[in-house]
Amino acid sequence: MAALAAGALAMTGCSDDSDSASSERPPVPKPEATYGGVLEAAEAPAPAGFTQLNIEGVKINAPQGWEVDQGEGMLCMRPPGQDTCGYGAVEVRPKAAQRHPDNWPKRDSSFHKDDGWAADPTTCRSLTTAEAGNVGIKESTLHLIGDGLTTHADGLKSHYSTWKVTCENDDTFEVRLWFLPESDVLVYVWSVDQRYDSLYLTIAESMDVTEYKQRIREEEERRNRDRDRDNDRDQDQGDNQDDD
Fold first, then answer.
1. In the beta sheet, which residues pair with residue 54?
2. pTM
3. How would you write 3-63 as a 3-class SS string?
């Protein structure tokens, strides 16, 4: 995956259907079960060593020294030395399934299936094969950590899924996904670099979708007003034709 062309900058400051994958795994909670009644809190600054980023109202902290690419519908954080949004990188995608042509990862609750780690889970992403993209997949297994949920800075809980994937050449790699299905926002580690094992969770936990959800509500209200105005205009035109 090539790096996004728009908005690259260096961070130098401080600063949520069908058959389940396995009956041994807990069932996918209903969307409402992943959300609690949370009071809106005052916005906290990013901790030292991080810079707060914002994509379409989704706020999340980027580690100092990581490069950031931002384009329409996606923000990518790349660890030092990584030139593309691939191995080791963290993606943040608002309206993730809505924008994806296959409705991934919401489609059929892909985020809770063994082969749900990608919309097209057929290509190896190990360190030695990720760039070439010419090695296939032998098997992949979903692992849920604890209750399979992660609480974020705004108090919302996402589905937290991890996969261990084995390639045809016996290389292995790991994929991580935090998904809010109701808000349709994801944080995605395309292929884990173990040097940043705990840092990935710290990044994901910092996400706050309060502003994003407010924007979605305002968009919906605006669409409803526009629809009502159009309906009223059509009604008025129909009444005028009846009078003629």
1. 59
2. 0.76
3. CCCCCCEECCCCCCCCCCCCCCCCCCCCHHHHCCCCCCCCCCCCCCCEEEEEECCEEEEEE
Angle at 201 between CA 198 and CA 205, to 5 degrees: 145
Show the beta-strand stretches assigned E in 157-211: 157-167, 172-180, 185-189
Tokens encoding 119:
């919309």
Separation in Å, CA 30 to CA 67, 146, 177: 36, 17, 18
User: What pLDDT sits at residue 48?
Assistant: 84
Of 219, 215, 209, nearest to 54 (Cα)?
A: 209
Q: Pick 229 or 123 by higher pLDDT.
A: 123
Q: Other CB atoms closer than 10 Å to residue 119's CB: what's the count?
A: 14
| Mean pLDDT of the 12-16 span | 39
Length of the chain as a residue count: 244
- Per the DSSP assignment, residues forming a β-bridge with 161 are 177
Residue 172 CA: distances (Å) to CA of 22, 23, 126, 166: 21, 25, 6, 4
